[in-house]
Amino acid sequence: MEVQISARHTTLPASLTTRATEVLSKLTKFDSSVSAADVVFVEENRSCKAEGIVHIDRSEPIVASGEAEDFNSALTNCTIA
What we know:
This protein is an alpha+beta fold. It contains two helices and five strands, in the order E-H-E-E-E-H-E. The chain has one domain: Ribosome hibernation promotion factor-like (Double Stranded RNA Binding Domain).
């Protein structure tokens, strides 16, 4: 599975990109048709947001988002809307 991580208005530590990749790579254990995932981290007005988009073969993408005071917590808080 291909994982792409990007950041807007901030720089990400290597530990966060590693954690995000590890978390998303576990999705293939549940469904082998997961082909790719994108994670976007955004910092706005003292708030950190994480949005994950999971691409599944022959299906619509699944979008999850989370918000917290730091990016690790925002990644943990991601839920499907």
